[in-house]
Q: What sequence folds into this?
């Protein structure tokens, strides 16, 4: 108890000492002369849900693994919870939860055994059964992990990532293989964790997931950040022109305008039939595709 | 405090170690048939070479010569061959990567694995010794402590080398290398035949021969372990685990 209390005090002090959860300047990682990460600057505030988007091989996972302390960097300055992940010890590691992209499991263990095992590393861990319930695996509690489906194993990964009550949680494509209901349940869990103070870094291929969860996001392509913003403003999305379509005298008409108000007023005044009227702005997916398309 | 609020922290290192040792033992128990099978070769050697004149031994007390050698062989089989193969596959399956994401340190994992292997060896040695006693082995009980001492050193050395191999080679290569080393050691390790006399250098090159010789000196003659053997096994027990702790990779 004393140890737990003193570590809590220490955590509070370090919170005061360093307001940002993650600070990265000029991060580079070179494999055999090729830049996998070619100069990334990044700041993630405490309590924020930050999402990294990008195609396969863009450098997302490499970046995240450097932040997690799993990979060495070639150059750049990295601070995660106030420490350099390349040098930080096990006390730092204990403050971080990681849901790896491609970890397998001690296949001969049951879900409950594995979660309870990892819980044993933390002084104020969540109860194993509570975490298993949170990720919706209660029915599989006593099943060997190797008998589970891909999506169920992914949920075990999530359970293991949060059981130690980390202050910073890395999720690398966490919902791959989830069915829609499990994804919604997972999103609720992430929102609850964030609302209660956990900082979350999420990499994902699903743009709806990033849009639903992220406070801020960055798009990575070819080892660089090509755009950064909120889901609503990313890549000038809010400022992009609206696309107005309607049918006039049997012909399909389309116009792009910054603000559709005047156009609609004119159409109304002209007595045009607006039954088929649609006004669309670029979706996050449109913006994303044009952003990564521009680097090709 | 809400159950969703962060409460980060690391359990005391001894708790983390105890947790990991318990897990390693549980996993060992889950592959219990492999643990029993691992005793097959030692058992065959014990009964074959111990009871019948199938090989030339430098003594007429066949069981007195063969049983200590078989105990040493079991230690190598479990701490080195079995451990290298298991850990190699664990690493390639990504099991260890997950532990790398936890507050368990590299030396912590190596220590836990070695401790779990020691427990497994204690059980196997006990079983084989009982079989030996049942078929007429009559060891000297006076020098049990040094016999245990060299066994712990040998275990640590084998375990370190196993984890090093598992860490730098592919699992298939690890399996091949560990099996090859096992067969070579079995042939020239002075278990079924007298070991080639390489002098003191031999103890450093053939830990199995050194360990077997130390067990014979103590259990067969009630004597003391030669200083050269203490030194050789101590070097193994320090060098390989230290190198493994530096080189070990989680994935």
A:
């Amino acid at each position: 108890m004393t140890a737990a209390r003193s570590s809590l005090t220490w955590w509070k002090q370090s919170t005061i000492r360093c307001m940002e959860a993650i600070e990265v300047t000029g991060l580079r990682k070179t494999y055999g002369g090729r830049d996998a990460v070619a100069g990334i600057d990044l700041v993630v505030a405490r309590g924020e849900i930050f999402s990294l988007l990008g195609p396969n091989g863009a450098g997302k996972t490499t970046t995240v693994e450097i932040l997690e302390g799993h990979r060495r960097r070639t150059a750049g300055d990295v601070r995660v919870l106030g420490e350099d992940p390349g040098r930080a010890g096990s006390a730092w590691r204990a403050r971080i939860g990681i849901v790896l992209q491609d970890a397998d499991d001690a296949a001969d263990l049951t879900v409950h055994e594995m979660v309870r095992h990892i819980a044993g590393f933390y002084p104020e861990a969540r109860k194993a059964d509570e975490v298993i319930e949170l990720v919706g695996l209660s029915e599989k509690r006593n099943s060997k992990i190797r008998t589970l489906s891909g999506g169920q194993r992914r949920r075990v990964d999530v359970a293991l990532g949060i059981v130690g009550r980390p202050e910073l949680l890395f999720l690398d494509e966490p919902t791959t293989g989830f069915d829609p209901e499990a994804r919604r349940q997972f999103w609720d869990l992430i929102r609850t964790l964030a609302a209660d103070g956990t900082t979350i870094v999420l990499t994902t291929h699903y743009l709806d997931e990033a849009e639903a969860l992220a406070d801020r996001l960055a798009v990575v392509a070819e080892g660089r950040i090509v755009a950064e913003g909120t889901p609503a403003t990313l890549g000038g999305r809010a400022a992009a022109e609206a696309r107005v379509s309607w049918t006039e005298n049997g012909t399909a008409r389309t116009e792009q305008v910054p603000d559709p108000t005047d156009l609609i007023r004119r159409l109304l005044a002209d007595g045009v039939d607006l039954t088929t009227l649609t006004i669309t702005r670029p979706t996050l997916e449109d913006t994303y595709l044009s952003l990564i398309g521009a680097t090709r | 405090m809400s159950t969703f609020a962060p409460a980060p922290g690391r359990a005391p290192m001894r708790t983390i170690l105890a947790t990991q040792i318990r897990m390693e033992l549980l996993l060992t128990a889950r592959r219990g048939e492999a643990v029993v099978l691992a005793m097959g070769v030692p058992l065959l050697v014990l009964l074959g070479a111990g009871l019948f004149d199938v090989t030339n031994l430098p003594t007429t007390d066949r069981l007195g010569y063969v049983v200590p050698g078989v105990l040493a062989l079991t230690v190598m089989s479990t701490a080195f061959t079995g451990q290298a193969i298991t850990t190699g596959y664990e690493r390639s399956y990504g099991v260890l990567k997950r532990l790398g994401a936890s507050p368990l340190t590299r030396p912590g994992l190596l220590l836990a694995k070695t401790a779990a292997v020691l427990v497994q060896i204690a059980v196997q040695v006990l079983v084989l010794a009982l079989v030996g006693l049942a078929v007429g082995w009559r060891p000297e009980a006076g020098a049990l402590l040094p016999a245990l001492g060299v066994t712990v050193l040998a275990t640590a050395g084998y375990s370190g080398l196993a984890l090093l191999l598992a860490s730098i080679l592919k699992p298939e290569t690890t399996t091949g290398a560990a099996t090859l080393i096992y067969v070579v050691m079995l042939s020239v390790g002075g278990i079924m035949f007298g070991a080639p006399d390489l002098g003191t250098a031999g103890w450093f090159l053939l830990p199995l021969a050194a360990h077997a010789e130390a067990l014979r000196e103590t259990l067969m003659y009630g004597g003391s372990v030669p200083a050269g053997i203490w030194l050789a096994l101590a070097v193994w027990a320090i060098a390989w685990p230290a190198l493994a702790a530096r080189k070990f990779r989680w994935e």
Remarks:
- Residues 13-247 of chain B form one domain.
- Chain B has one domain: 13-247.
- DSSP finds eleven helices and no strands in chain B.
